[in-house]
């Protein structure tokens, strides 16, 4: 199939079946598109929509986002995962404010210099916001292309990805670039899905080599999975009698970077690191299992009553905070769920 036929069929399908009512498509600005594209990295549309709507309400423009505290940004990100995206979003907004007159830059290379924006995200912004002829290669597009060409090597291999970038550039139409890019994403999200592709409704069925092979779900070829390691940690939940709990800010890099969590060291053995005195063990809670992309985490929560030491911790990474205020901070999903549970079951003292 020629590139013009590929794009023509895809655009004709989009005109009839493509998604045109997503929140970021309504009165869309470059800011809306940038925000949505970052949120959509490795996350499905249905999950992103409520987060996007809350973000736009809280941060309606770049200056509002740039002027916000990172904790406010991460609080709205809580539960969406891949928290580095939230931190990078805030950093990028500050750079746009300082270097680009509070605007999303219209230059591809300038976009690439912003935190959290790679080649595919930059291409999506250039195409969707500025109608410039740039390709994308997100997960949906990789899956469609791997099936269309029956690529029998894992797309994560560097030479395969390089070849895919060349292929998506070849297939770009000369007109209606924004609609075409959206059509690519829509096809992968709605028809050419991972486990149950709806091939009979696909506009590319007559030339799809994976369909011709008899089992399109064999493509893309999956990476050989290694057994995920299991890690263990303890959470020490210190509760003061006036419904304050002790939280600890995690390092900026690594898992849950910059978010507030429970201390992972007991006061009795923390060598005065924690602002806690008179800690008395109350009970242990059932373990919590949380799955990351590269490992599984088993969390063992332990509840203590304790009195706060009324000094600021030397590292300024510990706070005593009331339960209702705690839920406004940037929290990992398991921490937020545990605090909500403690509050709703009146376990707080």
Summarize the structure.
By secondary structure, the chain is α+β, with helices and mostly antiparallel strands.
CATH superfamily of the largest domain: Hypothetical protein, domain 2
Report the radius of gyration as a whole number of Å. Answer: 24 Å
Count of individual domains: 2
Distance between the termini: 69 Å
Strand content: 5-15%
The CATH topology label of the largest domain is Endonuclease III, domain 1
Q: So, CATH architecture of the largest domain?
A: Orthogonal Bundle
Number of helices: 14
Mean model confidence by pLDDT: 91
N-to-C SSE string, H for helix and E for strand: HHHHHHHHHHHHEEEEEEEHH
Question: Which stretches are low in confidence, meaning pLDDT under 50 for 5 or more residues running?
Answer: none
Number of strands: 7
Gross morphology is globular
Largest sheet: 4 strands, mixed
CATH class type of the largest domain: Mainly Alpha
| Classification by helices and strands | alpha+beta
**Helix content range:** 40-55%
Question: What are the defining features of this structure?
Answer:
Nucleoside Triphosphate Pyrophosphohydrolase, three-stranded antiparallel sheet, Endonuclease III, domain 1, alpha+beta, 14 helices, 7 strands, four-stranded mixed sheet, 349 residues
Structure explained in plain terms:
41% of the residues lie in helices and 14% in strands. The protein has 14 helices and seven strands. The mean pLDDT is 91. It is globular, with a radius of gyration of 24 Å. Strands 1, 4, 5 and 6 form a four-stranded mixed sheet that branches. The N and C termini lie far apart (69 Å). α1 (3-17) packs across α11 and α9 packs across α11 (177-190). The chain is an alpha+beta fold. It has two domains: 3-218, Hypothetical protein, domain 2 (Endonuclease III, domain 1); 230-344, Nucleoside Triphosphate Pyrophosphohydrolase (Alpha-Beta Complex).
